[in-house]
């Protein structure tokens, strides 16, 4: 009877897990191992680009790639994981329910934007977290021209000053002028609970970020938390009122709720603790990867960020190692010691840094050109050519994003 590797999720980590497993199985000529992947759609949503205009087009088909390498795609959603008996409960697109068994499981269901219990947040704040949410924001911005001119109409507030918040805010002045006219007086404000600008990115790139945002006309309100949101703006915890027809929430993510169904230790973001081979500690048949894995990148105490950069290589490693485990082969421990960031700063350019201390290496147009290659080329799936797709899944391959 064939053995089954089951992968849940078709994001960066899930897709590369499938290809990584297929690569090792192909190398060893195994015919009795099925690789199956479950996801709502056979497509990769290019989430790192959702701050850009045209987010609805930021997706790539996967069915041809999966067919080329012998991965079975199952369209549906996993509602329950029974790790004690190696089964999952699946709801298909026709709402039919079924149970699927596995010999090894790879959890690659990613993360979602964290929305705290702030009055009005769910109803009135936009986001760029998921493809439909980013498309909804874009449609809303285009409709602003139908509203009477006012300061609120011309104001966008971005709540959260992390990586996504900064990239989103840097895009908004130009996108708002595209909707309202080049001569419109627009106001883009970042509100962030931290006392310093770009606190999460550290002191290295901060002067560049500050310079870029000032040049773009984006203002920063440090030490500011959101108390409530309504259709006409928000109120801060200090009682300040900011009138805005557009509030965008970007403040933090949490691992997929499916991690709660695995009987194992999790970190503060809900990520499962894994060993160097990405096996969930204490659950032998389950591997975790991407944003659901709390994985060491090196021996210096650094852990993978919840980012595309790490998800791609985590996926390659998880796929290789889950197949190796099933075939009785030696694993290749996950390591990704080289850490970089490339932060898009809208029309101003970008900033590229290296190392966990984020030493600035490129700024402005040069960094923007690099960011363009990352966004438009490097993070997309490989071609559906079998040999090329399998070669790209080598876990020793390093990806910068």
From TrEMBL:
Disulfide bond among keywords: no
EC number of this enzyme: 1.6.99.3
Domain of life: Bacteria
Family annotation (InterPro entries): FAD/NAD-bd_sf (IPR036188), FAD/NAD-binding_dom (IPR023753), NDH-2 (IPR045024)
Signal peptide residue numbers: none
Domain FAD/NAD(P)-binding span(s) in chain numbering: 4-312
Keywords recorded for this protein, A-Z: FAD, Flavoprotein, NAD, Oxidoreductase
An example molecular function term from Gene Ontology annotations: NADH dehydrogenase activity
SUPFAM superfamilies named in the record: FAD/NAD(P)-binding domain
PANTHER family in UniProt: NADH DEHYDROGENASE (PTHR43706), NADH DEHYDROGENASE-LIKE PROTEIN RV1812C (PTHR43706:SF45)
Family the UniProt entry places it in: Belongs to the NADH dehydrogenase family.
Protein's name in the database: NADH dehydrogenase
UniProt source species: Cupriavidus basilensis
